[in-house]
Design a protein that fits this description.
The chain is built from 4 helices and 11 strands, in the order ββββββαβββαβααβ. It is of the alpha+beta class and 214 residues long.
Length: 214
């Protein structure tokens, strides 16, 4: 059995989904950059990880229909109000997914929350779209360093992303060594250092397409 939990404000409020999603997918990737070099062709610069995203779809039942994981679940309107309030707070929530082989413990922002109703019982169907939230040093999340199992047991009983300096740069038409040094070093006077590092002739304008080591 896999349990799905949403918690808020370091576990001050908790919601275990009564009916777990039939399936879910957590996606991520890398912020790679492809540049074209006259000498080497396309070069793929591997970047830092993108934020993870998760979409959860299920429903809040009005009564136990045999698919609920526990008995004393909150009413649908209470669940909806709780998630809506969390989303409007401007603070992240924490997603816990705990099973025999699956352990997820992620701080997430609520990107969107869609609810609907169908014919039959007054169950409320929902789709919750979440995105990974990264804490900056001034922020604190008291449970952030605990693994999912330890955190669930407790509940139940970096700097902002900055632009990375790429290790290489493909010269574009109109570039100058001074401009490249100013852009990536913050100091145009380091153009001479850049020229020597790349063994360039004593000229201010490198040829377009030239791949420079920064």
């Amino acid at each position: 059995m896999i349990e799905f939990w949403l918690t808020f404000n370091n576990g001050e409020e908790k919601l275990r989904l009564p009916v777990p999603p039939k399936d879910f997918e957590m996606t991520t990737g890398l912020n790679n950059t492809v540049i074209n070099s006259q000498e080497l062709g396309e070069i793929n610069l591997i970047g830092k990880p993108r934020l993870k995203t998760v979409t959860l779809s299920s429903y809040f039942p009005v009564r136990n229909d045999g698919l609920c994981q526990y008995a004393d679940f909150p009413a649908p309107d209470l669940c909806i109000d709780m998630i809506a309030r969390w989303r409007k707070s401007g603070k992240p929530i924490r997603l816990l997914i705990v099973g025999e082989t699956l352990k997820v413990n992620e701080a997430m922002s609520i990107e969107s929350f869609h609810v609907s109703q169908r014919h039959g019982p007054q169950d409320i169907y929902f789709t919750l779209e979440l995105k990974e939230y990264r804490f900056v040093p001034q922020q604190q999340d008291g449970n952030g360093n605990m693994d999912a199992v330890a955190l669930l047991a407790e509940y139940t009983g970096s700097r902002p992303v900055e632009e990375e300096i790429p290790p290489v740069y493909a010269v574009r038409p109109g570039d100058t060594l001074w401009g490249i040094a100013k852009r990536y070093y913050g100091d145009g006077s380091r153009a001479e250092e850049l020229r020597k590092k790349n063994g360039l002739p004593d000229e201010p304008v490198p040829p377009p397409g030239k791949v420079l080591i920064l």
